[in-house]
Write a structure and sequence with these properties.
single chain, 112 residues, alpha+beta
């Protein structure tokens, strides 16, 4: 009698574990689908906001350099700045002549 009771108890425990696992699996799949949908909605909103910002920063003649660089960074996902740095401290020389200065190129890339 004890042996039969133990087998029945073990069978019930096994059934609870199997059906519990199946229930958990179906719930996690449903939540995963909802999470993917929510992530897609957030990504779409971010894209719309970025497009609106790009439209608001379109280049014009009265625009500052910073706004133009911001526009380029949004449009191309990178900004390249080239400028001339003054020479190494020689008195009387300046960076007005390209041969006296040092050209510097700085590139900024957006991380996704």
């Amino acid at each position: 009698m004890r042996k039969n009771g133990l087998v029945i108890f073990a069978g019930i425990c096994l059934a609870v574990l199997v059906f519990g696992h199946l229930h958990w699996k179906s719930i996690s799949q449903a939540e995963g689908g909802e999470a993917r949908e929510a992530a897609a909605k957030v990504k779409e909103k971010e894209k719309e906001a970025r497009d609106a910002l790009i439209q608001s920063l379109k280049p014009n003649k009265r625009q500052s350099l910073i706004e133009y660089m911001h526009y380029n960074s949004l449009k191309q996902d990178r900004v390249i700045i080239s400028f001339l740095v003054e020479s190494n401290g020689d008195s009387g020389s300046s960076a007005s002549n390209f041969s006296l200065g040092r050209a510097v190129r700085v590139e900024f890339a957006r991380r996704s």
